[in-house]
Amino acid sequence: FYFKNGCPPPNELKERCLFAIDQYFYGHLGLQIHEFKAVTKDICKLPSFFSTALFRKIDINDSGIVTRDQFVNYWIGGNLLTMDLATRVYTVLKKLHCRYLTQGDFEPILHKLLACHPGLEFLRSTPEFQERYGTGHLTLRELKCGNLISAMQHVDEEEDINKVL
């Protein structure tokens, strides 16, 4: 059979993920953007500075809330649970019908990273640096071949930015 987003996850993996999701959403009608960081790191295994981009990707009606069902539909229904990390990053960042990432796709995570990483505090007041993120586009293949993903994961855990790059 052909599955557009790859084979569905094994039932055991899906059940473990649903259990973890239930822990975060229990007692809440939904989560707000400031509550989404732990879901991004613990369930999605993405760096914390992806939380805003992921939240906005799921909250398509711009309601300010992501419900459990919306999250499950996006994460498990979209089969992101079984995708490799580079494909998950690519899927979360890219525009819906685009086959590559653009400079603009990276802006939300870079702004979040600049705002919250202690090692980058000195750049917050330097707009000329913030405009120089690069140009062009990045395909999934190029994303997988480079070390950008591992650097993003490392920077989420390391306060000294010089140890990362």
Automatic annotation (TrEMBL):
One of its GO terms (molecular function) is protein phosphatase regulator activity. Residues 84-133 form the PP2A regulatory subunit B'' EF-hand domain. It comes from Gossypium raimondii. Pfam families: EF-hand_13. InterPro entries: EF-hand-dom_pair (IPR011992), EF-hand_13 (IPR041534). PANTHER family: EF-HAND DOMAIN-CONTAINING PROTEIN (PTHR14095:SF14), PHOSPHATASE 2A REGULATORY SUBUNIT-RELATED (PTHR14095). This is PP2A regulatory subunit B'' EF-hand domain-containing protein. It comes from the Eukaryota. Keywords: Metal-binding. GO terms for cellular component: protein phosphatase type 2A complex. The keyword Ribosomal protein does not apply.
